[in-house]
Design a protein that fits this description.
Chain A: Its main location: membrane. The complex is a heterotetramer of chains A (about 350), B (about 500), C (about 350) and D (about 325). Chain A is mainly alpha-helical and about 350 residues long. Chain A is built from 16 helices and 4 strands. In chain A, helix 3 packs antiparallel against helix 11, helix 3 packs across helix 13 and helix 5 packs antiparallel against helix 11. The longest helix of chain B has 18 residues. Chain B is globular and about 70 Å long. Classes of the chains: A mainly alpha (about 350), B alpha/beta (about 500), C mainly alpha (about 350), D alpha/beta (about 325). Chains in contact: A-B, A-C, A-D, B-C, C-D. Chains A and C meet through helix 6, helix 12, helix 14 and helix 15 of A and helix 7, helix 13 and helix 15 of C. The structure holds adenosine-5'-triphosphate (2 copies) and magnesium ion (MG) (2 copies). The site of one adenosine-5'-triphosphate has 19 residues of chain B, from strand 2, helix 1 and helix 15.
Chain lengths: ~350, ~500, ~350, ~325
Amino acid sequence: MDMLKKFAGSSLFLPVVALLVLLVFNTIFVDGFLSIQLTEDGRLYGRLVDILNRSCSLIILALGMTFVIATSGIDISVGAVVAISAAVVCTMIGGRGDGVAQMPMALAVLAAIGVGVLCGMWNGLLVAKFKIQAVVATLILMTAGRGVAQLMTEGQIITVYYKPFEYIAGFLPGMPLPTNIFIALAMVLLVAVLMKKTSIGLFVQSVGINATAARYAGINVTLVIFLVYAFSGLCAGVSGLIESSLIRAADANNAGLNMEMDAILAVALGGTLLSGGKFYIGGSVIGAITIQTLTTTMYALGVSADQLPVVKAIAVVIICLIQSKKAQEMFDAWKARRMSKQNGKKTSVDGKVAEQA
Amino acid sequence: MAQALLEMRYIDKVFPGVKALSNVNFTLHAGEIHSLMGENGAGKSTLVKVLTGVYQRDGGTIVMNGKLISPKTPKEAQECGISTVYQEVNLCSNLTVAENIFIGREPKKHGFIDWKTINQRSEQLLAKLDVHIDVTKTLDNYSVALQQMIAIARAVDVDAKILILDEPTSSLNEEETKHLFKIMRQLQRQGMGIVFISHFLDQIYEICDHVTVLRNGELVGAYEISKLPRLELIAKMVGKDLSAVKDMDKFAEKSTPSEEVFLDAKDIGAVGKLREVDVTIHKGEVIGFAGLLGSGRTETAELLFGIEQIHKGSIRINGKKINLKNPMDAMKEKIGFCPEDRKRSGIIGDLSVRENIILAMQAKDGIMHHIPYEEQCKIADDCIKLLKIKVSDREQLVKNLSGGNQQKVIIARWLATQPNLLILDEPTRGIDVGTKTEIQKMAISLAKQRGMSVVFISSEMDEMVRTCTKLVVMRDRRKVAELTGEDISSDGVMKAIAGGAA
Amino acid sequence: MKNRLNQLIASKYFSFFVTVLLFAILYGAGIAMYKGFMRPQVFLNLFIDNAALIIVTVGITFTLIIAGIDLSVGAVLALVCMVLAWLLANTGLPVGVCVLLVMVMGTVFGAAQGYIISKFDLQPFIITLAGMFFCRGLTAVISQDTIQIENPTWVALASYRVDLGIGFVSIGAIVALLTIVVAAVVLGYTKFGRTVFAIGGSESSSALMGLPVFRTKVMVYAISGFCSSLGGLAYSLIMLTGYNLHGLGMEMDAIASSVIGGTLLTGGVGFIPGALVGVLIQGVILTFISFQGTLSAWWTKIVVGALLCVFIIMQAFITEQKSKLSSKSSMEDNNDPPIQPTPSGAES
Amino acid sequence: GGEQSASSGSGSGSGGKQITMGFSQIGAESEWRTANTESIKQAAKDAGINLQFSDAQQKQENQIKAIRSFIAQGVDIIAFVPIVETGWDTVLKEAKDAKIPVIVVDRDVKVSDDSLYVAKIGTDSVKEGNNVFKWIDEYMAKEKKTPRDGGSQYNVVVLEGTVGSSVAIRRQEGFKDAMAKSANAGKYNLLASQTGEFTRQKGQEVMESFLKSYGPKIDILFAHNDDMALGAIQAIEKAGLKPGKDITIISIDGVKGMFQAMIDGKANCTVECNPLQGPLLMETAKKILAGEKVEKLVYVDEGVFPADVAAKTLPERKY
Ligand SMILES: Nc1ncnc2c1ncn2[C@@H]1O[C@H](COP(=O)(O)OP(=O)(O)OP(=O)(O)O)[C@@H](O)[C@H]1O
Ligand SMILES: Nc1ncnc2c1ncn2[C@@H]1O[C@H](COP(=O)(O)OP(=O)(O)OP(=O)(O)O)[C@@H](O)[C@H]1O
Ligand SMILES: [Mg+2]
Ligand SMILES: [Mg+2]
């Protein structure tokens, strides 16, 4: 009971409730939504696994985005960076039909992540050092990034036939869940440990709430902002690996398309204010899963992809309203008013007593 | 007695974890200047904000001119005829000075805003307060003090029945205060009711007719000022008996600085900020920077803390030449700095008291050397106890503390880093009498007991004279004199400033 | 001379001048490099092609000034195009009525967003993002296919050309320029406009100063909705169709234009003519590329990004220099401090 | 550089005046499109035509801007791949007023007045859809496949292209038409049809959802393009089924990747949609400018490539 109360007061409560509502809805309206089977080769198979599998790259992006937003910035280039990272790994491994890798996969993977970090550092440089507004600074890479990815793939979709490449977002032999779920988990845990064992959280929040005061307290604001964007780039790099492994190809045009918006949405649904300051990693993760669940639901219900946004919009507004403090206050006030109407007489008597005293 | 202009009865206001006001009564008559007194966090600002609809009260009634009113927003309060200057300057820094004075009630010509009139009238209005500045520049070009004056200009120009001034004089100098008082008296004669909040007893006794004292959100009583001796007023505010209060003012001996030099700044200057200053700070010394507003005291302090970089001159610490590129460099040399503008460069509003206190310490330790939670709590609790910070618990958000308590949190932040040199820029601004003496005593005892050097910047000559062993007098962004020992007196400082002017 | 320069630097229109200057440089480079770039029609085409974007940018600038944002503009524009096309195709209503209907629809939608944002204190980014999803989806619900407008009045309006002697412009372009003028006047010379800036400077201070914050915020989003629908009409005059994918990503173009023109996303600062130049700069970059004529798809993206980058960094650099210069000059001015009350003590 | 500009007067070409063609491409959204672009660029070079290429980044707006800019530059002829069918009246009228002939490439336009363009070169999407069904019908009969759910009908799922795009509409139309007209119409049941937006990601995601909903029932997958089919194949494998065997897979385009999949036995057929339209375009352009009469509608050649010819054909494929 006590635990429950504690949970109800925690920042995770509302995002979790929103997700649960969605899951309950699915269980009712989508046949076999909860069913999970074990296939012959020991893999779990079912819609829930799909949702987790597909939300991984979004979760990872949302991790990076959370820090960026906490410093009251924003990174709209992540989608393009995903495309670049995907292009790097696929061109390096190569699209040879005989399934042989052109370069060692480990090298390709490292290069892809490295390029992601570089992109992040570039954004960080513009925002932290040149003091360019975050939207504009990251707009540059958002515009040019996809072009860079296409340049690398020369406009082709490079399909990788090298078997181990599939493992990144597929099943390692004998594993019940796809690898990317473990990757996402590892990243989340890493961040959780960093939050617990270092003062990153305190520094990032201070910078986001009041950068001037943070500087006066000795925090290297420029460095914090720079690192935050670099980390966001790293996350985008990892996401790019997963996205490309999912389709075993680099599709420079569509990899990570519009993912920046989803990542921002995930962060916001998780309870972090876009104006910066307090942030909630757990909330962002749940927000990302919520978004993917919503998408999967729509596919399952056969809602056409271009009409899907209507439902998404309504869901988002409802989730926001549930989470809004102001709306809660108004609801409480309304309840109080109804209560007082019911025992209206009593209050007015009290009022009179007060007047006379 | 004639009907009261304003009557607030049984006002209650509860914040999560704090009962900010309980059953407070307040009566204001037309043509009266009425003071609200109380320690930091007593609930003065809250009472004002309840009246002007910023906060919704949890109980009680407000009667104005015999009519029940219940303003839900500041706008409604204004429409009722209540004009307010809030404690923290609440203007828009992106608008010009003139616009800040006239926004919401702009004069028009042919249906469009008449900028010429606005600028002219603003200049006239400010001239009455003896402020002569370029009103077409944006507000952020001016210091807190000037912003305060601008806010006052706006409030007095509004055609209102009640004028509320919440600590308007906290950053004003004597001259400016005089101008303000002149205007207040004028308005009083016109039959306006004025609520005046201040921690300066002199000012209260000079201008007010009545005083209402609050303590811990409760009403202590309302008194006629002429019948209430100072010490009694203080006793009522702090809730102790008279004898205890008398002890409070007994001042400690000044510190005796050692011969050892901690910091030696030679001819330092920065383009656009400071012309030329040199200071020597000894260990265990309380040194004051005196001067008028805008004389460059803050800038000097900022150069010593590495916020701005020097373009000429040199700084030596413990004999070693040091290049201060950022605050961290200064912190490594064990320097701490409480900035004067606490809202902008002091507090991190959305963080808790605990986090605000350990922030500098953590920054110094580095990101990887996380101070364990338990230790953080201990440090925070110690500081809260030491400085008597009034909080509901250490996890309360700093932005919800009263102004004075926010100031204490920032001092605590730097004390926690155990500096060798602590720079306090206007640390007593907006602080109640009791606490003010506590802070002065603290500065002295830090110097005496821990051998710490303290730079004390304040616009109140008295407290500088009382606490400092050396005064650096500045004018026009350069040092004009240095006073020690017997020379330290209000007169001495004034002469030094005037001498510099001649 | 030096004084003049200082004055210019200190002026609040400085960043606008910088933007205009950079635009001129870009245009000059075009003229130097490509024959035909000099034709006046190339310049006028900037207005014809970008009429809708100009109008939408004006609307979004209002929301940016109050430190908000409106991501729904592109989608509202698409919805307006679609509804207009649908109404013209499926009802016998006269053009005027249809136009009025869609304008009201867009404005009301904007106001509704503003109401939700202000009333429940929600983040404008999220609510307008939801608004964007909503309108896009709704457009698809009306028709997944394009609907062509065949109404003769509308078609005639679309092909009407206003001859300026040196070339021609479309009706949309003229409406766009009018919008710019009206918006600039509203922001500069009306109570409402100034309140918008005040809210951007500090919402809480504005409330404490007794300004109508709630009403103004709702109105700002309504204006953004209004501009999106007006932009939709201009767009419809160019496209003569309703289509789900019209104006895709336009919100980003509009935000970028506005910011390049000197608007701060942190609110409180914005300049309508600057926003216009912001649009023109993006337009001229595209013209550049189409005159260049050999870039492949990806190089186009990279070059647009690179030009944007050069531009933005240059702007940042110049603004930085400005703040340095102005602080220096203020020190020089202060040789004789403007006010120096004689301290009372000195007289005695 | 002077060579980029319309060098109408300078006459640098071999046969007197060099032709300048303004060409507006949609973007580079797929390999197919890239091949299309390459073909046109190459053909222009071969034909000695100066090509002003402009990429619209998937926006009709940008295409209209480009065409307007071509007019301002004074090119000799304009060709463009219309991203959507409608909305071209105004700008094409401007071209006509400037007396610049226009060729529509690859996709259709709907305009009020057919004289706004001189010729259309392209592929016949309806026919492609037709061919898809015809091949399925033959194949099912030939292989004597039985419905997997044991019923009497083959269950078909369709991955559609981008909603509202003329290609997607026509291919679906051609497919359904052929089915309705066929004598065997009763044997097929259209189980589900959803858009995969012509991309691998979406194709895969939607197929996953199909499999969860109708897993054991699906017999045939028709994807509006190869990329979606390639995405779907992976989803099918993940579900433990054998693509190409358990589920018969056919799609349109004929990109190399699809041939590879057929060689691996994971797909069954691809109906070609020929992107190599450059030579025909240049030829037509020259004729028009020389004042010759040309056909209003010209289609490029297209074939059907089942799995058994895949290995032989792959080396010849250009895209
Ligand atoms: N928004 C808020 N939320 C929670 N607590 C608050 C809030 N505002 C004020 N308080 C609390 O209410 C009490 C009274 O604060 P108030 O600002 O009225 O003090 P004050 O008398 O004006 O003090 P000072 O002289 O320092 O300005 C304090 O304990 C403060 O922490
Ligand atoms: N009375 C005044 N008239 C015009 N400008 C002023 C006035 N007072 C201050 N300023 C200007 O405001 C700016 C900051 O003022 P502020 O009082 O903070 O300066 P300061 O040097 O930090 O002062 P202090 O010595 O009081 O700490 C300075 O640039 C100064 O020129
Ligand atoms: Mg107060
Ligand atoms: Mg100062």
